[in-house]
Specification:
The protein is an alpha/beta fold. It has helices spanning 38-52, 87-92, 98-106, 112-122, 195-207, 223-245, 250-256, 271-283, 291-306, and strands at residues 5-8, 20-25, 28-32, 61-63, 82-86, 137-139, 142-147, 150-156, 166-170, 175-177, 212-214. Helices cover 37% and strands 16% of the residues.
């Protein structure tokens, strides 16, 4: 992207196909996120080395923008770097370790419709042998770093998508790496909320003097792309709240909400998770989501939308 700022993009940005970034100045380099398995991460690191001359052993800082495995499961391959994340992300990472995902995928053939959905979503990834590698340094709120002579700002904006989302802002390059605060051409998924925090996080991006925005999934975008994600969040909040106040169950609401143009975004069935999270927010329910129930509902929605 110019001036030592790089983006590594994985099409099509759907389940697990996340983006990463590399910030370089002089002999120092910071990696923004790893990928969903070690094979993909090794391939990425090799391509970065070929393009920039910065190999895995030359990366001195790694920032995980949030806890999800598609941004952290390759951490072991850059273990020599200082691994930085928000404290909330570090606390959340052990909740869904690689071994748990590997076990779930191993059982998927016997799980009917849900198993088929898991295979469609995650069958391309190899979680076997992946070891969870946790951050070696954590922070809350904000952390200012330097890469060579270049300032890098880590700004905690979670809980939103997850409990501890972080933006990586490089003011001199007019670039921000957003992690999963932005999904471009794909449906955002709100595991944590509250929705107001997520909207505020996008407002923070819109207030930055940035030209290029690297989302967690999908193509590089600009402020117009960020506004589109904000519009989606505002829309589903209004639609879900109307149905909540009318007494409609969350599962029924997930099928009932008309997505309009948003139906063309990838993984539109994530509306099931978003409505469930919003309903729990409206009720003041702080219990964790029932992941298997939500997977079942997303599988049903996915089948319905494919027909």
């Amino acid at each position: 992207m110019g001036n030592g700022a790089w983006a590594y993009l994985q099409p099509d940005g759907g389940w697990g196909w996340s983006n990463a970034g590399l910030i370089r100045d002089g002999e120092e380099a910071l990696l923004v996120d790893t990928l969903f398995d070690e094979r993909l991460t090794a391939e990425m690191l090799a391509q970065m080395d070929a393009a920039t001359g910065i190999g895995a052993g030359d990366i001195n800082l790694l920032v995980n923008t949030h806890a999800n495995g598609d941004h952290t499961f390759g951490n072991r391959l850059v273990h020599q770097a200082e691994i930085i994340a928000s404290q909330a992300s570090a606390d959340e990472m052990p909740e869904l370790p690689p071994a748990m995902l590997a076990g779930l995928m191993a059982q998927s053939d016997a799980m009917g419709e849900v198993g088929q959905y898991l295979q469609r979503s995650f069958g391309a990834f190899d979680f076997g042998g992946v070891e969870l590698t946790l951050p070696t340094r954590t922070f809350t709120g904000r952390l200012d770093l330097t890469v060579g002579d270049k300032a890098v700002e880590l700004i905690e904006v979670g809980p939103a998508h997850t409990q501890g989302d972080v933006l990586v802002h490089v003011p001199a390059d007019r670039v921000v790496y957003t992690g999963d605060i932005l999904f471009i051409e794909g449906t955002p998924i709100m595991w944590a909320g509250p929705v107001g925090n997520w909207i505020a996080a996008i407002d923070r991006i819109l207030a930055m003097d940035v030209e290029l925005i690297v989302p967690g999934h999908g193509p590089i975008t600009d402020k117009a792309g960020a506004r589109r994600v904000r519009d989606y969040l505002v829309y589903i909040d209004a639609q879900a709240r109307a149905r909540f106040e009318a007494g409609m169950p969350a599962e029924e609401a997930a099928f009932d909400i008309a997505l309009g143009d948003y139906a063309n975004w990838g993984d539109a069935e994530r509306i099931a998770v978003n409505v469930d999270t919003l309903y729990r927010e409206y009720r003041g329910d702080t219990a964790p989501p029932d992941i298997m129930r939500l997977l079942t509902l997303m599988a049903r929605l996915d089948v319905a939308r494919r027909q």
